[in-house]
Amino acid sequence: MQTLESSINPQSDEFRGNAEAMMEHIKTFREAEQKVLDLAEAAREKFTKRGKLLPRDRINRLLDRGTPFLELCSMAGYKMHDDKDGSMAGGNIIAGIGTVSGIRCLVVASNSAIKGGTITPAGLDKTLRLQQIAKENKLPVISLSESGGANLNYATDIFVQGARGFANQARMSAAGLPQITVVHGNATAGGAYQPGLSDYVITVRGKAKMFLAGPPLLKAATGEIADDEELGGAEMHAQVAGTAEYLAEDDADGIRQARNILEALPWNEQLPPQREMKWEAPVYPAEELLGVIPSDSKKPYDVREILARIADGSRFLDFKNEFDDQTVCGTIRIEGYSVGVIGNNGPITPAGSAKAAQFIQLCDQAGTPLLFLHNTTGFMVGTHSEQNGIIKHGSKMIQAVANCRVPKIAVVIGGSYGAGNYAMCGRGLDPRFIFAWPNSRTAVMGPAQAGKVMRIVAEDKQRRSGIDPDPKTLEFLEQATAKKLEDGSTALFGTARLWDDGLIDPRDTRRVVALVLDVCREAGIRELRPNTFGVARL
Ligand code: COA
Asked: What is the mean pLDDT of residues 398-426?
């Protein structure tokens, strides 16, 4: 493998300008995240008075000390639905991959500090994505639940799809994935099935309220008068109904018991002892990733500059670099794991597509996971490209991405436009994980081009109808279309819609990719013990 040599000067004004622009992007998304943290923190007094822990404190207690927690989809629903100012992003759920009692799990906590942890359309989509992550990566799921159920302002948007989450739970149980739920508070109506469909349930005394209909609804529906405790209290479920296996004294005790359940599982015993991995750090510091990306997104740069800062020892085995240099393929190691990389140095040409398709097949043959680093304006257009079979070769690349069996991880580091997004394993091509840098842009095409296309189409239509084109109207149409695409292509816009699993600081790329590679490795060797119907609580 060749050790990459960077041609970037970190002392140059250009580098400093790039780094400042990148820091601005990072600041924007960190501030957006902070707003959500602040809103939840504002509920601390209310939670303390009620003898409860805040959802993030619950997670902190659950996780093994000093182990990483990879938070997922933290900005889901940002400025969507009733999240007017971005402070309620995250879909009222906090979730991520973490280690509990030495076992890697998917952790999902209702963010009951915000809107009572109610389920929003974005929260539902996030839940479905999290379940897919758990299934694909064979992760046990721990839920720290406290939710007012459906957000009634958006009930029609979530009602039908909501059942999918329950079906997934049933299928995960049948697949052999343990689901452990601590009920910390409200679990009403649909919310009661989430613990109901879990394999292990812990209820917190005096706090859990798990019923299909609470006292007001019951009175309205049947006239019966009953209180919270007899209808769905923790003791009732543990002692009478049998919905709960374990009764906890408070939030902290419930979390301790969830850790105990995990500890009792022989989950890691079937895995072979992990071989000792040794690796070298990249020759170039991760900090320099800030200044590598030109602040002017139209300016090209060599994706190998990124590889030099994320690969072990900055080493890279460049594949067919004489054949096409716009699509860069080759092998690196990240914290010891071999990974096939596909990156872009420009549009994807017919030769680039063919090269990438072949490289993907080689990785599939060898069992090497793939890492896609998106920075492309899309497939090359024009007569030359068409005559060289761009549709045929591009289709081959998409086909290879769609059908390959190795884990596919994607990071959107720059532009991700048009079918280039598909060919580089955008969300629609089912990457195992996809993250985005905060400077990135994802759209069907560049805003300026989209504006011009609409202008030309409208102008031609007017001429055909015998109308003299009005330059002012056309200008307005061009600008409005461009603005719509501009606003709809930012990293925050995309992450709100779950086009990715979260925004990451470029400097964290190596750590994040290494972690998910390890998750994929573990899933690859783990044998589950599936049955047909899941575990029923009889
Ligand atoms: N839909 C939409 N918004 C809801 C909601 C729901 N089902 N339940 C609560 N909210 C909102 C409240 O309007 C309030 O909004 P605000 O912050 O803008 O004032 C916020 O969530 C917090 O509610 P609040 O009642 O102040 O908090 P709490 O911690 O004391 O109680 C609940 C939380 C969830 C227990 C309580 O609000 C409740 O019982 N909600 C109704 C639950 C229900 O019947 N759901 C049926 C779903 S099928």
From this structure: 97
Same domain, 169 and 213: yes
pLDDT of residue 276: 82
Residue 59 banded pLDDT, cuts 50, 70, 90: very high
Query: CATH code at 239?
Result: 3.90.226.10
Q: Are residues 333 and 365 in the same domain?
A: yes
* Concatenated DSSP letters of 423-453: HTT-GGG--SEEEE-TT-EEESS-HHHHHHH
Ligand 1 near 150 CB (within 6 A): yes
Q: How far apart are the CA of 153 and the centre of ligand 1, in A?
A: 11
Q: Read off the pLDDT band of 20 (50, 70, 90).
A: very high
Give the position, in ligand 1's atom list, of the atom nearest the Cα of 186: 35
- Domain range enclosing 517: 286-444+490-524
Query: And the tokens for 248?
Result: 């906890």
Query: In this structure, are 370 and 468 located in the same domain?
Result: no
Q: For residue 71, report the distance from its CA to the centre of ligand 1, in Å.
A: 25
Say whether pLDDT at 180 is over 90: yes
Residue 97 lies inside a defined structural domain of this protein: yes
> Which range among 94-98, 189-193, 262-266 shows the weakest confidence by mean pLDDT?
189-193
Query: Domain check: are 332 and 193 in the same one?
Result: no
* Same-domain status, 208 and 62: yes
Residues 379 and 479 in one domain: no
Atom of ligand 1 nearest to the CA of 185: 35
d(CA 267, CA 138): 11
Q: Whose CA is closest to atom 5 on ligand 1?
A: 151
Q: How far is CA 230 from CA 18, 191, 226, 227, 238, in A?
A: 62, 18, 7, 6, 12
Q: Residue 103: what pLDDT?
A: 97
Average pLDDT over residues 486-502: 96
How distant, in Å, are the alpha carbons of 8, 20, 304, 331, 513 from that of 284?
11, 19, 12, 18, 17
Is residue 163 predicted with pLDDT exceeding 90?
yes
CB of 509 sitting under 6 A from ligand 1? no
**Is residue 11 situated within a structural domain?**
no
Distance 148 CA to ligand 1 centre (A): 6
pLDDT over 90 at 298, yes or no: no
Same domain, 224 and 366: no
Query: Average pLDDT for residues 200-214, to the nearest whole number?
Result: 96
Ligand 1 pocket, 149 CB below 6 A? yes
Last residue of one domain, picked from the residues 234, 268, 302: 268
Cα 150 to ligand 1 centroid, rounded to whole Å: 9
Q: Are residues 180 and 242 in the same domain?
A: yes
Residue 116 near ligand 1, beta carbon < 6 Å = yes
Number of domains in the chain: 3
Residues in CB range of 425: below 8 A, 6 or more apart: 370, 372, 401, 408, 410, 431, 434
